[in-house]
């Protein structure tokens, strides 16, 4: 009986040690002092575009005509400068929408992706959301006499929402991909961007392979997620000899940034202007 009890205790100690090791491995604490956002040098440029229900050529034609205007191109530049803090001159207001008498359109977005769309009030806000995409949608609605509404949802829900309604426009910093083209139609791209890596200044990661073996955050259904998943898939298929990245998905970019600062993740993979905005705003 004593021998059995001793054996039982030994096994329990061993199990406890294994469990404790597993928990500690999953709760790696990363040092954080100061955030830095750097271009992912091994990534290619991507393009953002507004999305509409597949086959909605009338709306696509209107959007393409709007984005071809010199005034629209100037608005994009001014809006980026304003929403990234370069200038204090507001590029547009939402007051013009009060006079529109046409059909109602709905901007479907996720208001956690500054400078493209984020929560805020005052001039230029629609349903308490402001940003580059909001400015563009206001100008587009004014040019076509549309009443403009805004639906704020999770990013992963934007494409499905748009795919089911002729009067919905997806404007949420959406990267044009072949997979998404199967679900919706895209207007002509209006922004070119690239992925950035936010990390502690002491690390200053510049490539995805430098993140091997680390816990990395990204916003769900964004290019950042696809980049990390593609890296891990290449490891599984033997194309890359490295440790897998521990993936951490977030609905909101700000939640990922807070975890970075709290040492819960080592880095974030996200769009250029979003990355720059998070780091620069944190200095204020």
Core attributes:
284 residues, alpha/beta, five-stranded mixed β-sheet, three-stranded parallel β-sheet, globular, disordered N terminus
What overall geometry do the principal axes of the alpha carbons give? Answer: globular
Strand line-up of the largest beta sheet: 1-12-15-13-14
Residue runs with pLDDT of under 50 for 5 or more positions: 1-26
Mean pLDDT equals 90
Oligomer: single chain
Please give the radius of gyration in angstroms: 23 Å
Number of strands: 15
| SSE string | HEEEHHEEEEHEHEHEEEEHEHEH
Count of DSSP H/I helices? 9
Structural class: alpha/beta
Biggest sheet statistics: 5 strands, mixed
Strand % is 15-25%
Helix percentage range: 25-40%
N- and C-termini, Cα separation = 68 Å
